[in-house]
Amino acid sequence: MHIYVNGRNIEITEAIKAYVKEKIGKVANHYDQIQGIEVVLSVIKNPAASGKHVAEVTCKMNTGVVRCEEAAESMYASIDLLADKLARQVKKFKDKALGSDKTSIRLDNNDTEEEAEVETIEE
User: How many domains does the chain have?
Assistant: First the structure.
């Protein structure tokens, strides 16, 4: 898995890059189908804007894409918020992907119970 870090209106230092890779890299523990993560960090130069530091992430997986965006007063705070949000969305994506065959198990169990009831009534 590769983590790409880009910047808009900001110079990406080694400290910020290491912090992003540490925080966003933990998402790979939740789901092993992640192919690559692209992080874009930007600063809004408008003095009237409230959340000036924006962090966006695009997480590419085998079966789809998850995209998140967060804004805060500092870059480290926006990265923290982004990591939490991405972790929640990847867990949700994983649960949807793995939970799709639960319905067939329930239907199979109901069919066998009905057959058992029919056999007891016929005897």
Answer: 1
Q: Which residues contact 25 (CB under 8 A, 6 or more apart)?
A: 3
- Which residue range forms the structural domain that includes residue 24? 2-122
Whether the model pTM is above 0.85: no
Q: What pLDDT band is residue 101 in, cutting at 50, 70 and 90?
A: low
Of the pLDDT bands very low, low, confident and very high (cuts 50, 70, 90), residue 20 is very high
CATH of the domain at 58: 3.30.160.100
Exposure letters 13-47 (e unless 16+ CB within 10 A, then b): eeebeebbeebbeebeeebeebeebebebbeeeee
Q: 47: which 2 tokens?
A: 């003095």
